């Protein structure tokens, strides 16, 4: 049953050539929206050619300035973003980039949480010690965006079962949850182990993106 939710609409769609530091390049189209319930400027990037006979591959990626832009190895966000772009481009689908830094707590609070992690807390404990939920992300806007794109069924590129559960509760059919690669480094090993233990993230050791 389609869940009742305020409708969003596509505001602008323009070509967006993408180029990554490792030399990978791909043509995409960036899409902005109106009517998103949180008032933030989330975007989608359409990649590849969608085959009408299969459900599009969708990655819902939460903004991570430190990982996506600065290349921080404290998390796996940057490598996951890079991987997602290539994998979606190969089969057709969308990257949804949501402006909810630090699992929804914001950039400054995330850096405060990093300081607490350096003092011994794990990534979830640090958020809670600051008075936040362990994971405050809400994917309602992602559902609005998917519907504005005309999508009601998706293959979801994610290790996080909460993403799939939230989409399903709001009426988007997740026909398959596809795991990302494990982007482990000495700096993020504890972080990944905590996501698996406390967040029930499901990791599968598949090949990383090609250079």
What do these coordinates show?
The protein is an alpha/beta fold. It has 8 helices and 7 strands, in the order ββββααβααααβαβα. The chain has helices at residues 65-69, 77-91, 101-104, 107-118, 123-129, 140-148, 161-169, 189-198, and strands at residues 9-19, 25-34, 43-47, 57-62, 93-98, 153-157, 173-178. It has a 7-stranded mixed beta sheet, with helices on both faces. A hairpin with a 5-residue loop joins β1 and β2. The longest helix is centred in the middle third of the chain and has 15 residues, at 77-91. It is globular, with a radius of gyration of 17 Å. This is GTP cyclohydrolase-2. Its EC number is 3.5.4.25. It catalyses: GTP + 4 H2O = 2,5-diamino-6-hydroxy-4-(5-phosphoribosylamino)-pyrimidine + formate + 2 phosphate + 3 H(+). Zn(2+) binds at residues 64, 75, 77. Keywords: GTP-binding, Hydrolase, Metal-binding, Nucleotide-binding, Riboflavin biosynthesis, Zinc.
In short:
The protein has helices at residues 65-69, 77-91, 101-104, 107-118, 123-129, 140-148, 161-169, 189-198; strands at residues 9-19, 25-34, 43-47, 57-62, 93-98, 153-157, 173-178. It has 211 residues and is an alpha/beta fold.
Strand order of the largest sheet: 1-2-3-5-4-6-7
| Global morphology | globular
Number of strands: 7
How large is the radius of gyration?
17 Å
Secondary-structure element string: EEEEHHEHHHHEHEH
Largest sheet: 7 strands, mixed
Which spans have pLDDT < 50 for at least 5 consecutive residues? 205-211
Q: What is the first-to-last residue Cα distance?
A: 42 Å
Q: Tally the helices: what do you get?
A: 8
| Estimated helix fraction | 25-40%
Percent of residues in beta strands:
15-25%
Residue-averaged pLDDT, rounded?
Answer: 87
SS-based structural class? alpha/beta
């Amino acid at each position: 049953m389609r869940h009742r939710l305020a409708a969003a609409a596509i505001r602008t769609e323009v070509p967006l050539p993408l180029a990554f530091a490792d030399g990978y390049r791909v043509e995409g189209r960036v899409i902005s929206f109106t009517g998103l319930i949180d008032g933030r400027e989330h975007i989608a990037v359409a990649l590849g050619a969608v085959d009408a006979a299969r459900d599009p591959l969708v990655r819902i990626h939460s903004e991570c300035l430190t990982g996506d832009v600065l290349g921080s190895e404290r998390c796996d966000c940057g490598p996951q973003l890079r991987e997602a772009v290539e994998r979606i481009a190969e089969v057709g689908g969308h990257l949804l980039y949501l402006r909810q830094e630090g699992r929804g707590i914001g950039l400054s609070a995330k850096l405060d949480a990093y300081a607490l992690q350096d003092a011994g807390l794990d990534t979830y404990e640090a958020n809670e010690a600051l008075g936040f939920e362990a994971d405050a992300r809400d994917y309602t806007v992602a559902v609005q965006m998917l519907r504005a794109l005309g999508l009601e069924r998706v293959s979801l590129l994610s290790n996080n079962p909460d993403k799939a559960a939230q989409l399903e509760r709001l009426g988007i059919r997740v026909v398959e949850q596809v795991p990302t690669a494990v982007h482990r480094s000495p700096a993020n090993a504890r972080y990944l182990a905590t996501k698996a233990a406390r967040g029930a993230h499901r990791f599968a050791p598949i090949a990383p993106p090609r250079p």
